[in-house]
UniProtKB/TrEMBL annotation, chains A, B, C, D:
GO terms for cellular component: cytoplasm. Its EC number is 1.2.1.38. This is N-acetyl-gamma-glutamyl-phosphate reductase. GO terms for molecular function: N-acetyl-gamma-glutamyl-phosphate reductase activity; NAD binding; NADP+ binding. It is found in: Cytoplasm. GO terms for biological process: L-arginine biosynthetic process.
Amino acid sequence: MGGVSIKAGIVGGAGYTGGELLRLLLNHPQVEVAFVHSNSQAGKPVYEVHSDLLGDTDLYFTDTLQQEVDVLFLCVGHGAANKLLTEQQLKPGMKVIDLSQDFRWNESLNKEVVTASNRDFIYGLPELQREKVKSAQNIANPGCFATAIQLALLPLAQHNLILSEVHVSGITGSTGAGQSLSATSHYSWRSGNTSNYKVLNHQHLHEIRRTLQGLQEKVLPGINFVPYRGPFTRGILCTSYTHFDLSLEEVQELYSTYYSSHPFVHFSSSTPDLKQVVNTNKCILHLQKEGDYLVITSIIDNLLKGASGQAVQNMNLLFGMEETSGLKLKATSF
Amino acid sequence: MGGVSIKAGIVGGAGYTGGELLRLLLNHPQVEVAFVHSNSQAGKPVYEVHSDLLGDTDLYFTDTLQQEVDVLFLCVGHGAANKLLTEQQLKPGMKVIDLSQDFRWNESLNKEVVTASNRDFIYGLPELQREKVKSAQNIANPGCFATAIQLALLPLAQHNLILSEVHVSGITGSTGAGQSLSATSHYSWRSGNTSNYKVLNHQHLHEIRRTLQGLQEKVLPGINFVPYRGPFTRGILCTSYTHFDLSLEEVQELYSTYYSSHPFVHFSSSTPDLKQVVNTNKCILHLQKEGDYLVITSIIDNLLKGASGQAVQNMNLLFGMEETSGLKLKATSF
Amino acid sequence: MGGVSIKAGIVGGAGYTGGELLRLLLNHPQVEVAFVHSNSQAGKPVYEVHSDLLGDTDLYFTDTLQQEVDVLFLCVGHGAANKLLTEQQLKPGMKVIDLSQDFRWNESLNKEVVTASNRDFIYGLPELQREKVKSAQNIANPGCFATAIQLALLPLAQHNLILSEVHVSGITGSTGAGQSLSATSHYSWRSGNTSNYKVLNHQHLHEIRRTLQGLQEKVLPGINFVPYRGPFTRGILCTSYTHFDLSLEEVQELYSTYYSSHPFVHFSSSTPDLKQVVNTNKCILHLQKEGDYLVITSIIDNLLKGASGQAVQNMNLLFGMEETSGLKLKATSF
Amino acid sequence: MGGVSIKAGIVGGAGYTGGELLRLLLNHPQVEVAFVHSNSQAGKPVYEVHSDLLGDTDLYFTDTLQQEVDVLFLCVGHGAANKLLTEQQLKPGMKVIDLSQDFRWNESLNKEVVTASNRDFIYGLPELQREKVKSAQNIANPGCFATAIQLALLPLAQHNLILSEVHVSGITGSTGAGQSLSATSHYSWRSGNTSNYKVLNHQHLHEIRRTLQGLQEKVLPGINFVPYRGPFTRGILCTSYTHFDLSLEEVQELYSTYYSSHPFVHFSSSTPDLKQVVNTNKCILHLQKEGDYLVITSIIDNLLKGASGQAVQNMNLLFGMEETSGLKLKATSF
């Protein structure tokens, strides 16, 4: 392991996921950040935009996409990743990890691999398909809510146990909406406030259904999802429930077996709270039975396990490094 | 109206609902606060405990329960209201409005009136049974989540339209947990945090089911409720959905007809956010259809329409005053 | 009093101070809102912009400035008020209350009256010069920090007791920065964050110095002010200290005499906290002595006593109404 | 460096600073946590109390103080550290780092070394006296506000440039008040709220004055400090100003020279905001001149550079490890 060392480039480095990726990669023992691309900030020191990096790096944003990197992270908006790959010829051996939704699923939902611009993209949820990730060339990094909900349901789907509709509600922090200024990201509005949005039609349901139906042989029932905007900055907490015949002990056994080799998934025997995972790459799961309902609570940091942390986890797997390398993060806790 | 003037007493005036009631009654044009009872704070000026009332009142907390009032508000804990009425002989003509859950329902759930200590308690949800409230002697004031959820579902139950399970998620502010210090009300814990609790077994489901089954002739299906602790102080936002055959226009018609004479219920054509109602006695409802699901969003201020504001609304009705008297409140808005 | 009834118009009604003024005037017993002007929102219902007013008003924004009002409130940006009065001929008898800083002081700082467009503006701090306000035609409504700091220092200046530099620090909520979207009003930035700004050169020092030097015969020493952005929406808390020879009892006597007839200023014997005044028109003062320093803490709601509430207070005085009319507001408290 | 490895014990491991220390030491490449002592939580797994450590450690709290450690961290309350050292015989070679205020200064304020229980304590501010720290046996870890204020003023004192009173205001997060439940740490109170406390008489002024007077030959003028409770959990931001004759360029030169070899102090050319340092061990300084005042803004994370991070920094120095070892932390940023 000591010998491995790779060069990484970031496109769209001035946004939230780009900045978070930088915070991780600058401390990663086996990675050198070769360049950080940004059209809007080219020429400025990185710490002028990500001001917490003052003292940590002398990098400047560039508007030139260098080819001499082993892996390229795309932190651009939905649609822009596809455009970039179409317009720009990348060095063939370069691996790509895309954080947008452009290559997570296709319209038919029935293919595991999304091909675009002559590149085949593997859906990068290591807890679903770590081996495929390891041998992939290109990764489509999952969505944040999609990660929290899939990790709550993967073992059920694997055992053909999603037999009736699943009801999910979830709350996300403001960083999920990115850096752009908007009415619902204005402090005076969002502080002490909450609202639902995209009720029962959130776009992440596509990738969730694709994954679960891919695992489960029986036809997947409806997944109903009510997302909320929470008055906090980081994190996602989801509660999912569905009818379930087995006992709590049986389901705990299924889950702990499923996740036994996955270093970022942990089980809490008591009700978890969001800040247990904020600023870490963990997912904490909690299982309970109420009547004939199985209730699963799942929490992640939307910018880490839900975005840039998972991207680094995928990078580690792509290059044969320790899955947790650079990801043993101190939680904020408070 | 000008001639009406009543005397009110408050028991348990040092807590959150007691304080909120005081804030309302001190500005109510037809009410004089005769006394504020508190065992723990007796002898202190009211503004030492409710420090925002500095300059508004010279009242002191007392540990003597005076009988010469027209209405007595019980703002004591669950269990303590029943105990007080059992141990203390109240003047027969005195009306009682109890904010605890002691008289909201009984075990059998099949009686509309809960009788305790020779007093019959009417469930004080004016939008359910305003006429019964007007002629009542004693009022059991509804719970906060119970108010938000019932107001979302009353028109459906009235028309026998709750035909399949209802799925509700809701977020509440910290004042819902009252004034007592606890791990989950500690600022360092709750700030930027969230968690669910009492998933699928919240105690307010009793009164909700009693009400809805009382209205609807067909057997009431399951009401599933996932409550969340939100990192804010005031307010409740609930999202409820259930299968529904009629069109959006038809359901809007049902709802607007049902609430046409109720001054505190309003409809928003766009997705509402919590702060539209904070520091007011309003309930704002929003209706939408997604596939064959009807989705109802309801928002209230948990301390006002969910507690002390509704208590004043009930008082207004009990004494033949304008239903909105003393309740035209300036929203905090931000 | 019952007979008085006036018509009011608002220019710039879509912003924060305009909305807050509306919330007050719609509940004011002696005022009718004749129109609400907004260039950007003309044609829309008021409640679409100020969504908490749903159910409270059927007014629409207009782009026509009607002349048939008794008082016109200018809630437009700094500079725009002056421009409006220069370009637009107002009915001579119409009174004007301007919430911008355009007419609060002039460059020389040595005139009490600022004249613009043939209108003489009186600085509308009732606790400084209530009688002048009563007989004024046009009011320049004070700034928010300026109000909090002046109310802390007026009695000292009146008694020639500001003899050495005054050191002030103060924290303001996000609504002080208005409705416009900016990096420092983005939720993800401001939540859990703080920073200072305009250290020792805040623009409100002009009006503060003009007022204090106008009261005090001796030359006014420096006023040093460090403002902070606080992670909350409403309110201002300031701490001021200066060398002071008299005893605490003597200064308390001076202050309570000075403010004895002013209904919105109250004294707290213990350290106050901001939420005692949020959503009210109050100013709470606290006095203490530490060594030979007098320390004065002052708190107001920046949108009420610091803006729209004070504007209504001035309106009440201009028209011979009760000073507190429409301003007995329920505090948010939490 | 690779060869160094030490064993550490923590007393008072269930509190905030103890937990934060654990979060650091568990990831420190050269430290093994031998035991975590807690009287109140003995027998429980560490992750039951510090729930974000779920999956990170299998340690249990113990009520036995083991002697076989190289360094013992005391994270107990003020007074309790002194009591422990008096009552308990520690192995002579064991180094002690105390996070309480018990050994930071003595009444006379004129000794650099505080001796207690036959142990000499060195004040552990590496930016003041790194060489003394390196050769120390026992460290008194500085207070949080004391760290932020001293780092703002050290270069001035070193050059005899504190010639007139210093005026400091500062805002701290709720974790500064620790884990105990209290009225001012209740979420419903503190959310959206602020207040000052201990105005001009904060206890950290003792250690600040001792340090500055120890550096500066001329008599130290008054240090006036106004602390605020901020509605956030982590961090301290201080603004200090004093009369100053030199130019901005000259003072920048002094400061950058002073801190050139100190890895955790950084300079921002623009106004910093608190979240630049939250969850890091950094101190960011900003210098400006306004008239003849020098204004210094300093920010730290109160639990890291202001407590447990600085304790680890001191440990690194005590044992000849890299000063930054285990302290390259990912900022929370949002």
